[in-house]
Amino acid sequence: SLGSYAIWILIGVIYYKFVENWRYSTAFFYAIEAGLSIGFCDPTERTDPSRLFTVVYVLLGSSVIVGSLGGLGNELL
Asked: CA-to-CA distance for 1 and 42, rounded, in angstroms?
C-alpha cells in the first residue's frame, strides 16, 4: 500500500539523516534514488555499515514497491 511505501522512504530518510549526517533534502533524495534505481552515485555512503544498510534497503524496497503496485492493481480491478 501507499502507506508502507511512505514508511519505507521515511526509514531511509531518517537513517541517512542521522547516520550519514546529511541534510533532510539530501537524505530524501538518496532514499528515493537508491531505493528506486539502485543509483549508487553522489552522495555516497562513507561507511561499510551504511553501504550494507543501503543494500538491504534496496532489497526490501523492491518488495515494498511490488506489494504497493499489486495492491493498486487489485483496487483498479
From this structure: 29
> What does each C-alpha distance from 53 to 19, 47, 59 come to in angstroms?
11, 10, 10
**C-beta pairs of 23-26 under 8 Å, 24+ apart in sequence:** none
- 3-state secondary structure string across 13-71: HHHHHHHCCCCHHHHHHHHHHHHHHCCCCCCCCCCHHHHHHHHHHHHHHHHHHHHHHHH
The string of pLDDT tens digits covering residues 16-54 is 999 999 999 999 999 988 877 766 667 888 899 999 998
Average pLDDT in the 3-17 region?
Answer: 91
Cα four-point dihedral sign 41, 42, 48, 51: negative
